[in-house]
Amino acid sequence: MTKNKKSFYYRPKTNQSNSPTVRWTFVTLGWIFFVLGIIGMLLPVMPTAPFILLAAGCWARSSRRFHFWLINHKYFGKYVRDWEERRAVPYYAKWLATIMMAISTTMMFLQLPADMIWVAWIIAAACTVVAIILFRLPNA
């Protein structure tokens, strides 16, 4: 017995705008965020997940086709679905993000001159808040 291939796809809920200007703005922003997410995969100083989630949010408001493509994407689909359904983040991603923030902040403390160390403290505080928020989210 064969299953219909369409049954494997997740059908996302979209909230498309009626305004063509708003839709094109969100489509454009979605592609910008998606490209930034891809760049984030290659550069250790730039995150991937927030940009992919922002792209999904923009496309949910503008393009069913792009949103459907991203939600069923081989690599990003599961993470976007987990976020949209339960606001959940994988446990390993929480740890990875926290470790990367700690390394980046430590490097700032070592690289900045003494008169600019206050910038590193602000970044450290922001990273701490982000880590606390991350670990309060459900695990995917």
Question: What do these coordinates show?
Answer:
The N terminus is likely disordered. Helix content is 67%, strand content 0%. The chain folds into two domains: 74 residues, no CATH class; 46 residues. The chain starts with 19 loop residues before the first helix and ends with a helix. It is mainly alpha-helical. The radius of gyration is 18 Å and the shape is elongated. This is Inner membrane protein. Keywords: Cell inner membrane, Cell membrane, Membrane, Transmembrane, Transmembrane helix. It is found in: Cell inner membrane.
What is the gist of this entry?
With 140 residues, the protein is an all-alpha fold.
How would you summarize the topology of this molecule?
Elements lengths: L19 H23 L6 H12 L3 H8 L5 H10 L4 H21 L5 H20 L4
